[in-house]
Structure formats: structure tokens, C-alpha cells
Design brief:
Helix content: under 10%
Structural class: mainly beta
Number of strands: 8
Shape: flat
Strand content: over 45%
């Protein structure tokens, strides 16, 4: 079935569009580790443009392909340090608590 999950998650979960029980279109995921992904999805994976915000409030904003960073992106580690990079199907960094929570969503 298809539709939009209308409940705003007050705890970890997904809010957004879905098709055939898979995340599809625009959606937001909150993890138990205090992280968030907001952006587009295709076949249950991060696809297109999205923003990952990590527990320490650093973030990555950029392009995804099949759940991996791919294309242009900006990784902000702290308010005084911004890295602009081009990614080619890179896996999530293992330095955040989000990885274990986000990777099963891919």
C-alpha cells in the first residue's frame, strides 16, 4: 500500500512518504542515538539530496546514491570548520553513534 505517515515521531522512527511498505519520496528518520536524516528516499534507501545530523550536531548535507554519499556534499564538523567535498559512493563514517542506527535503514 501507499501513503503518508502522518504521525510526527516523538521517539525514533520515520515520518514521510512510502510506497509498497518502503520509504519513497520525502521523509525524515530519527534514531535512538539522537541522529536525524531528512531528505529523499528511493526503494527504502537515501537517494538524491539529504541532510544527516549527528548526535554532536555536526552534519552532512549533500547528494546520496543508493544509501551512500555520492556527488557534491558539505560536511560541517563544528561551526568554525566546513569541508566541501565530492563523494563517490562513500560509506558512513564510523565516528558517530548514528551509523549503527542509520545503516539498517539502507
Amino acid at each position: 500500500s501507499s501513503g503518508i505517515n502522518a504521525e510526527w515521531p516523538l521517539r525514533p522512527g520515520y515520518k514521510g512518504e512510502w510506497v509498497k511498505d518502503q520509504k519513497e519520496g520525502y521523509g525524515v528518520v530519527y534514531t535512538e542515538g539522537g541522529c536525524k536524516y531528512e531528505g529523499t528516499w528511493h526503494e527504502d534507501r537515501q537517494e538524491g539530496y539529504g541532510i544527516e545530523v549527528y548526535k554532536d550536531r555536526s552534519f552532512y548535507a549533500g547528494q546520496f546514491d543508493k544509501g551512500l554519499r555520492s556527488g557534491y556534499g558539505v560536511r560541517v564538523v563544528n561551526p568554525t570548520e566546513e569541508l566541501e567535498e565530492t563523494f563517490v559512493h562513500t560509506k558512513k563514517e564510523k565516528s558517530t553513534d548514528c551509523d549503527s542506527a542509520l545503516i539498517p535503514l539502507l
